């Protein structure tokens, strides 16, 4: 049995496990050179259905599926952001199927993110079709049944270190939200009813009470 399948079996047998599991990691260095952006794009295309990310060191991470409950919550979140973004018009929003390359070389797929319109339009159209070098202005990670909180916190800090202006780590399991901003301590909120994106996202308020009910 593969390490990935063993991780799934552990979580299925222990549905209340607190910490989740780490992704399955493949180390390439020094035996194999680091995959180029094109090679990685083609690798993902050949292995459709799997969730991959790449660390800044070039290690390949294989994530477990999020599950239907998380998928439903994520769909609700992206809908809320999308309704606001379409009305606001100052930026573009993306879902978890979108992969980006951070300035430090890591390739990530946040659960949802938003980028100022002028920054998006500055990227050549050819690059937009694959994996652009881009750090979100606003980024959200939603903790799933298999995620380790420690790993998600590290990802959020990575976004901030690479230029993100606002980040929300939402943990439905503990009904907590961790708010990340550059140059400020992480703000931990217990079961907040709403989240405001001000001043970056003018007028965007996320009614989280509905998410806790889900």
Question: Would you kindly provide a written description of the structure presented here, covering whatever features stand out?
Answer:
With 214 residues, this protein is of the alpha+beta class. The chain folds into two domains: 3-63, no CATH class; 68-213, Alpha-Beta Complex (tt1808, chain A), CATH 3.90.1570. 32% of the residues lie in helices and 24% in strands. It has seven helices and 13 strands. The protein has helices at residues 3-13, 37-46, 68-88, 117-121, 125-128, 149-161, 209-213; strands at 24-26, 51-54, 60-63, 91-95, 100-101, 107-108, 112-116, 138-142, 166-171, 176-180, 187-190, 194-196, 205-207. The strands form four sheets. A six-stranded mixed β-sheet has the order 4-7-8-9-10-11, sandwiched between helices. The protein is globular and about 50 Å long. It starts with a helix and ends with a helix. Residues 1-17 have low confidence and may be disordered.
């Amino acid at each position: 049995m593969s390490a990935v399948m063993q991780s799934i079996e552990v979580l299925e047998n222990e549905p209340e496990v607190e910490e989740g599991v780490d992704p399955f990691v493949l180390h390439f260095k020094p035996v194999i050179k680091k995959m180029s952006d094109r090679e990685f794009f083609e690798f993902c295309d050949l292995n459709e259905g799997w969730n991959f990310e790449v660390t800044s060191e070039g290690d390949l991470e294989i994530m477990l599926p999020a599950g239907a409950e998380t998928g439903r919550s994520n769909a609700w979140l992206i809908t809320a952001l999308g309704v606001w973004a379409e009305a606001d018009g100052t930026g573009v929003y993306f879902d978890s199927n979108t992969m980006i390359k951070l300035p430090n070389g890591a390739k990530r797929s946040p659960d949802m993110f938003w980028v100022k319109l002028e920054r998006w339009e500055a990227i050549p159209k050819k690059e937009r079709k694959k994996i652009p070098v881009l750090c979100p202005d606003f980024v959200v990670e939603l903790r799933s049944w298999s995620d380790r909180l420690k790993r998600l916190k590290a990802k959020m800090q990575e976004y901030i270190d690479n230029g993100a202006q606002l980040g929300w780590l939402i943990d439905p399991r503990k009904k907590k939200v961790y708010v990340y901003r550059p140059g400020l301590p992480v703000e931990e909120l217990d079961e907040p009813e709403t989240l405001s994106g001000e001043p970056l996202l003018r007028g965007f308020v996320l009614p989280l009470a509905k998410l806790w009910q889900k």
